[in-house]
Amino acid sequence: MGPAVVPASAESIRGNQWHLDAMHAPEMWKATKGEGVTVAVIDSGFKLDHPDLVGQLLLGKDFSGLPGGVGTFPSGHGTGMASLIAGTGKGRGGQGAFGLAPGVKVLPLKIKSDASSSSEFLGQISQAITYAADQGAKVISISQGMDVAYAGSDDVAKINSAVAQARAKGALVVASVGNSAQGDNHVEYPGALPYVVGVGAVDQSAAVTAESERGPQVDLVAPGADMVDACTGETGYCKGHGTSDATAIVSASAALLWSVHKDWTANQVLRVLINTAGKPTDGSQRTDAVGFGSVRPRIALTTPGDPGPADTYPIVEKAAETPAASPSPSSATASASAPLVPSSAPSADGTPVGVQPAAAEGEGSGSVVPVVAAVVGGLVLVAAVVFFVARGRSVRRGASAVVPPVPQQVGPGVPPPPAYGPPAPPNDNPYAR
After folding, report:
1. What's the rounded Cα separation, in Å, for the pair 286 and 365?
2. Which residues are catalytic?
């Protein structure tokens, strides 16, 4: 699906970016805008001359093998992710799209998001991760993903090695968990890998969006509904939704925190983001819907608490996991009919789960557009082509396109769904309280 363009008549793009008000961004910007931090964005190309990104983009690198370099793009996805992180709002006479951390620099790294094999897709991401860490990027943001059922063990080993190298150089790797919760809820790489922060999406009322995937791979959630950002559409601005957008917000949140605490390690930055996140409504420390909660950088900046040990990764359970993978990419056909699903996946009704504010220490924290990759099999059937999936990507839809509500189970013995209430007003939003 193509981008949903924001009408040219909209007076202020910034005025439509609800998440910045909900997260009290103007208040945070009095302390920091993320200066001195580089965020690498691994995506499908970037509009280098967009007015909201001019001066924000470093000299990037193209790993896609496609003609045209980093500054060419099959869609506006990479441009949108970069602007959600570091947009300056300079477009439209200063009324354009702002990023959550408009002082950071973005290292644009292009990959081929519709790759024809897991080796190509994960291989390019692996190269980009290694390059980003070598260039000194503190945060590596990946709003891309691929169904683990198609991932060969060699490819998984390669990307795990790249993540390990990035961690050794002090970088934090963040990735989307995917948008297929209403369908198969496939686990996706790289978001589900150990030492990668898996990000889901919430809406204006802090409820997990219907499309945001559930499972043990979810570590944090962030705004990912009705997101307005810079893009390559006719007016230069688009509205979209998805765990891609949420990933950009978590990456920007980490950058804001790191710009103030320059001596912290990636483990400490992540630990504080987790400790200050808005916690699940059921009182749990984490759930498969929201992970450890909704990221709240304002709380992390004002009352971070103890960042903990510098050399200990804070998500012990995920770090101990062994990634699942098919023996080789050629087995994708056999795996496709029986997709891998988290063992703790939600019930079929997919009831959304919300988050509520948790006391900060010291004061009482698109649908997917499937793309098909080639798999040749030939026992009884003729050779067939099956396309790989880049599920983490947002879908850009019009303002009238609303994520449909998830049906809820009713009847004896079925507990009622959690209560959410109406969307909170911007100055009293649960993301930022």
Report:
1. 12
2. 43, 77, 244
